[in-house]
Amino acid sequence: MQFEKQVCKQVSDQPAYITSEHMLRMQRASMIRYDRTLNEANFLPLFFSYADELANIADSFMKEYSIPQLCHIQAKTDIDVSQYISGLVRSAKSLPMVIKKAPIISSTNRQTLLPMKSSYDLVYHFFADQKLDAVEFAQKLANLYNHNFKVIPTANGAVIIDPSTSKETIIQKSCEYTPYDKSIEIPPLEEVETPEVSTIEKLAEFVHQPKENLVKAVMYSVEGKLVFVNIRGDLEVSEEKLRHYLGLTDSSIPVELAPANLLERHGLVPGFSGLVGVKRASECVLLCDNSVTTVGCGVTGADKQDYHFINFNVERDTKKIAKFIHYADVAENPEKVEGSIVAEISDCRDFYPDMIGLDSKPTKTPLYKVTIRLVDLVAATLGLSRKIRGAYVINVGKDETKLNVTTEELLKYCRPECIVIDNRAKPNFGGKMQLAQMMLFQYVIVVSNKLDAETVSVNDQPVKIVDLGTIFSS
């Protein structure tokens, strides 16, 4: 591509507010242009060319399990994807199967390597025929990128981290509990007056019980639907874990505290809510964190202003709505790790698809979601010094025939967007070399009449034009 025809030219000087070295490098090479007002990036041809190379590595990896099938499914959650595909496929005999979702530019609120909201994620839903070890699976994928990536287990699977970046990322670890002793006799459920006792701290003091014996209610609204979470009083709900449980694929879908009208519809009273008096259980998500199984005789809200229940046992006292109650690990258990996430593997165990098994009986089959964060992966693999396969061609001698022959040979091994031909009269050779160094390309090729008609200079070394393929394939 001629230098002048590039949609965006290389620029050494960048705005002072761009302080990330990774972003500066991508800016100077015209991979991206950062928009400070939106806190988003504009993505340019060279970015997509390099991102495609990284995506192809992921494709090749997934082909070891099953050839990825490109689909666009109108789904807001991974649960929708699970149900849709299982409705089409039906039988486990068709497994394993990999459904690929093409990446699109979107905004995200998650932690990222580059200080901006833009994301470009490549997603696979892997409908497996057997359980996988998420950490081992992630390690195999990480190894293919020939980078010093690190795999760390999480509550929902594993993440691939680039530890070389000077960033700190918070991940959620799984929580394990020992259930209460079921041999202990539990007194009957009893309603007690707790005037103006609407917080866990006040309740623990009022009933003279540690927070570990209390069951706390946290009510959320997700697209107008109540998500009613019950968790042990000494713990907090992790929004990341909750999002995973709900299968929310779009980080822009808000998980908000439930408004008063939604609470009223389900018979819940703020500060005094509990499972015993909930209404319309079939119309909401009733979720108990696994920590609730440790509370054999506890205290919870009575869904009545200024009242709580004591001697509460979730298994005994919620039999009428038991079929609507689900248990999952949604408690905060953060761990700080050095580096940035470039990919994640999630075990979708809370919504495995229903299929007909090999024995012709209904069964649930494993589902894993593989998310390649291509913006972060591009920045991480480029780092602060790596070059990509491409060439900046400087025509010094104005030998158009020799330049055309060189370009034709390069196009056999490089994409057009990875070849920049600087055939301008100005600036001088030194100025062109400065731009060439900013391009991140592995090779600077000089076409001049100082060498014979069949030879060019590649990184200051004479190379026959017909041998350029040898360099690019090495």
Automatic annotation (TrEMBL):
Domain YbaK/aminoacyl-tRNA synthetase-associated, first and last residues per copy: 194-313
Protein name (record): YbaK
Source species: Tritrichomonas foetus
InterPro entries xref list: YbaK/aa-tRNA-synt-asso_dom_sf, YbaK/aa-tRNA-synth-assoc-dom
GO molecular function: aminoacyl-tRNA deacylase activity
